[in-house]
């Protein structure tokens, strides 16, 4: 009975209309037919051709087809942390092998073959005992206000404009050299590693 209801199929074309019902063309038993892709709650994808799938005929009606696309051939790859250890979970992108890996000890690894973009509508908070950011070329912070503090005291940075002002400042009352005889020099009196502009 189940023989006609459940079959292996492959996706033959991806869904170009990924709206209410993601309908793909699938191939099974030498036939090509439309079928709706089905995913667990909160999961979604748009699998490309050749994704090996399981297709079900709902209520025994072979015209009422849904299918669960899989990627069994793609999961073992040098770019993926596979084979997995016991109890590990992996979410991955079959074509590029970008992934999120829930490891045996609870560590979560995020590894992208391209960019990683995180967007918060309000706040993004990172909290840990130690935070290390390593940028091979450039670490760029962009904001109208950048505040560094030690948990209570806000720390300020000298800007180029402040150094210029210092070097040109005069004392209307006289006494001190006008302008100062000793200039402030970027890189000598300031760091060039962390620099405000
Ligand atoms: Fe002065």
Outline the fold blueprint:
Layout: E1 6-13, E2 23-28, E3 31-37, E4 52-57, E5 65-69, E6 89-92, E7 99-102, E8 108-111, E9 148-149, E10 154-155, H1 160-168
Parallel strand pairs: 3-5
Antiparallel strand pairs: 1-2, 1-4, 2-3, 4-5, 6-7, 7-8, 9-10
Structure notes:
- The protein is mainly beta.
- It has 3 domains: 2-69, OB fold (Dihydrolipoamide Acetyltransferase, E2P) (Beta Barrel), CATH 2.40.50; 71-121, no CATH class; 139-170 and 179-197, no CATH class.
- Helix content is 5%, strand content 24%.
- It contains 1 helix and 10 strands, in the order ββββββββββα.
- It has one helix at 160-168, and strands spanning 6-13, 23-28, 31-37, 52-57, 65-69, 89-92, 99-102, 108-111, 148-149, 154-155.
- Fe (ii) ion binds at residues 169, 171, 176, 180.
Strand runs, count: 10
What percent of residues adopt helix (DSSP H or I)? under 10%
| Heterogens | fe (ii) ion
- Give average pLDDT, whole number: 87
Top-tier CATH class of the largest domain: Mainly Beta
Task: Extract low-pLDDT stretches.
Answer: none
Instruction: Summarize the helix and strand pattern as letters.
Output: EEEEEEEEEEH
CATH architecture of the largest domain: Beta Barrel
Computed Rg: 30 Å
Shape: elongated
**Structural class assignment:** mainly beta
Kindly report how far apart the N and C termini lie: 74 Å
């Amino acid at each position: 009975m189940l023989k006609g209801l459940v079959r292996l199929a492959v996706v033959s074309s991806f869904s170009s209309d990924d709206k209410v019902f993601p309908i793909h063309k699938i191939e099974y038993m030498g036939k090509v037919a439309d079928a709706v892709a089905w995913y667990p709650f909160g999961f979604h994808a748009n699998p490309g051709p050749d994704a090996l799938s399981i297709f079900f005929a709902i209520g025994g009606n072979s015209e009422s087809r849904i299918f669960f696309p899989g990627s069994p051939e793609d999961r073992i790859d040098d770019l993926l942390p596979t084979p997995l250890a016991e109890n590990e979970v992996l979410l991955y992108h079959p074509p590029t092998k970008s992934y999120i890996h829930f490891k045996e000890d609870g560590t979560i690894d995020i590894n992208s073959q391209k960019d990683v973009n995180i967007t918060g509508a309000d706040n993004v908070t990172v909290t840990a005992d130690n935070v290390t950011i390593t940028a091979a070329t450039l670490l760029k912070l962009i904001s109208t206000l950048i505040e560094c503090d030690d948990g209570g005291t806000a720390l300020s940075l000298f800007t180029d404009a402040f150094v210029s002002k210092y070097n040109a400042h005069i004392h209307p009352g006289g006494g001190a050299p006008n302008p100062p005889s000793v200039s402030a020099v970027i890189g000598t009196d300031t760091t060039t590693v962390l620099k405000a502009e």
